[in-house]
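stage 2 :: seqdesign
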């Protein structure tokens, strides 16, 4: 039993050595009589803390995922609007090139106005030419021409302008078409301005704000993940420590019981060892007497019957003493082994 005691003490020392750093880390008193309860309480507290951290981490992951989706959404919208903007710019460029639309419109409208005025004048000249040929006089003041030469000179100037009417009409049609083309492209230019100045600006601002918030959340998320990982590690260390402490407490309890058994055996052997020789002597005497009584057992007399009863009583006493002797020898043998 002493060797078993040494083995258990060695087991306790090893378990304490294995747990020493973790016990110190978690401020557990190694001398505490309820060390296993302290560790169990620590483990439950850590499990509760880990559960709360997991919930916080899940919410942070969800918020980060939502921000990532919003950021991707804004980026996609920006790409779509920039594609539409590029197409509209190509459409405008095909009409006005790199010129300014408002200036082109002003110039074209002014040209159109002048052409209309010229057209009115040319139409008037045509009517004048008809009246001059009919009345041979000035169509404005009705004054008769002085001679044929004057009439032909005036008619020639009027006819020259009248002949330019067809060219003027062609120019008017051309300018009208150009003006119509510029006016059709104006809403496209306004759409370009709206996309550039408002839509894309707002989208870029939203993207920047979302990206900044996402980056901040990612930093917080990394901190939460780090804390969560540490809590998981602490939980695992506490679980391992709990198993070792439970084993330690079990072995300590077994060691205490073993020490009590050894102490009891030592006390018992010390109290009985002095009477072993005496018991042996008594045992030998009883054995001799039993042998004598058994030899006298052959005669069936009243005296022999009494002796038979005595022999039986002595035999029972002999067995009791022999059993007690064997027990004492066994205890002495165990003490020698210790």
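stage 2 :: out
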């Amino acid at each position: 039993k002493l060797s078993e005691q040494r083995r258990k003490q060695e087991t306790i020392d090893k378990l304490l050595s294995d747990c020493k750093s973790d016990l110190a880390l978690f401020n557990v008193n190694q001398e505490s009589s309820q060390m296993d309860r302290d560790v169990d309480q620590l483990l439950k507290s850590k499990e509760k803390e880990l559960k709360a951290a997991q919930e916080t981490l899940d919410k942070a992951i969800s918020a980060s995922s939502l921000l990532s989706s919003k950021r991707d959404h804004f980026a996609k919208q920006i790409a779509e609007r920039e594609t539409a903007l590029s197409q509209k710019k190509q459409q405008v460029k095909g009409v006005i090139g790199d010129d300014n639309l408002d200036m082109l419109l002003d110039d074209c409208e002014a040209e159109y106005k002048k052409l209309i005025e010229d057209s009115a004048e040319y139409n008037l000249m045509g009517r004048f030419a008809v009246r001059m040929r009919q009345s041979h006089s000035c169509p404005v003041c009705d004054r008769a021409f002085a001679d044929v030469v004057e009439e032909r000179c005036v008619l020639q100037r009027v006819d020259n302008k009248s002949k330019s009417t067809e060219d003027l009409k062609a120019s008017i049609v051309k300018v009208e078409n150009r003006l119509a083309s510029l006016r059709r492209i104006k809403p496209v230019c306004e759409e370009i301005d709206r996309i550039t100045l408002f839509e894309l600006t707002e989208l870029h601002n939203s993207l920047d704000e979302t990206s900044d918030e996402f980056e901040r959340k990612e930093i917080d998320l990394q901190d939460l993940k780090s804390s969560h990982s540490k809590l998981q590690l602490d939980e695992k260390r506490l679980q391992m420590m709990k198993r070792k402490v439970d084993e330690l407490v079990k072995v300590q309890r077994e060691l205490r019981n073993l020490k009590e058994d050894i102490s009891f055996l030592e006390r018992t052997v010390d109290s009985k060892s002095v009477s072993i020789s005496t018991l042996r002597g008594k045992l030998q005497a009883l054995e001799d007497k039993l042998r004598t009584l058994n030899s006298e057992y052959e005669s069936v007399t009243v005296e022999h019957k009494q002796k038979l009863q005595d022999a039986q009583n002595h035999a029972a006493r002999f067995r009791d003493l022999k059993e007690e002797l064997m027990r004492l020898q066994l205890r002495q043998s165990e003490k020698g082994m210790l």
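stage 3 :: structure notes
- The helical segments are 2-25, 35-96, 101-135, 148-163, 165-272, 276-295, 302-337.
- The chain is about 90% helix and 0% strand.
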